[in-house]
Amino acid sequence: MARRTNTNTETKQAGNPQPERTESMDRQKLIKRFEDEMAKVARPGADKLMDYIRKSDFYTAPASTKYHLACEGGLLQHSLNVLDALRGILAPVTKEDGTAAWEYRIAGKAIATIPDESVTITALLHDICKTFFYGTSTRNVKNEKTNKWEKVPYYTVEDRMPLGHGAKSAMIIKQYMELQSMEMYAIWWHMGFTGDFENDTCVGAAISKYPLVLALQTADMMASKIMEAETENKPLFIPADPEPHGAAQDAAAPAAGAPPMNELQEDAVDFQEAPPLQPGA
User: Fold this and answer.
1) Which residues neighbour 52 within 8 Å (Cβ) at sequence distance 6 or greater?
2) Computed from CA positions of residues 40, 45, 51, 53, in that sequence, does the dihedral angle turn out positive or negative?
3) Which of 27, 144, 153, 160 is at 20 to 30 A from 53, Cα to Cα?
């Protein structure tokens, strides 16, 4: 039995005009926090997975085209928001072997004890499917002040690995690192109920089998609907403390057209997708 722990706690188009950038998000701090969290994952292949992440556009991609954090670095910010939201609805405990874990309680009853590593993996990697997913384009928008039409950049979906959403995230991760069953189910079904009979039947069964599925769905909705606005975190979730407990570090910056490449990407300009699926993956 776990012992409760006391706590207070979318192809790029050259030549497109770029919108103004803001320094409201210090992405380097967000990257450091993400990598510090992932460094706690002591699992074979985690280093190779991080290499994929660094070579991808994970740190610069938006979280969506227009709905939430549609801005450069939005995906990174959203992933950390989901981690904070997930930890916020769970209770920290210590297992009998001394390892850290989280307890999922409903109506005051503990229904699942989730390893700390599983919380980190599912929250931070649930949307890794959005790597190599967005591009930019422009559209004409009338400037109400000047009464002139102007080209304005916006994000588009240009999926270079059309393998679905949650399932795609799980498949990418499993090219490099194994997932526990509860982690795979949670990531695979994190989009929740859609109104499709087959999908919803599976989601319901997955929740019953692994409550972490519901916890991750809830945290994802908390982040996208409550913590985040279209191009930045909402004011309540922009703390002064660069490393707060239970809240995301900083607001995200507005879109700056096609996300710039990092140093590793510059060494491999051509798109490199995850390796082919292996039998039994």
Assistant:
1) 131, 172, 175, 176, 274
2) negative
3) 153
Note the pTM of the prediction, 2 decimals.
0.77
pLDDT tens string 38-74: 999 999 999 999 999 999 999 999 999 888 899 999 9
Task: For tokens 């931070």, name the residue.
Answer: 124
In whole angstroms, how far apart are CA 241 and each of 36, 52, 234, 249, 261? 17, 30, 15, 7, 28
Report pLDDT digits (tens) over 224-237.
Answer: 999 999 989 999 99
Measured between alpha carbons, how far is residue 181 from residues 39, 111, 212 in Å?
21, 17, 11
Q: Contact, 164 vs 129, CB < 8 A?
A: yes
- If pLDDT is split at 50, 70 and 90, which confidence band does 157 have? confident
The pLDDT-based confidence of 260 (bands split at 50, 70, 90) is: very low
Q: What does the pLDDT read at residue 137?
A: 86
Torsion angle in degrees (nearest 10) through CA of 193, 117, 225, 239? 180
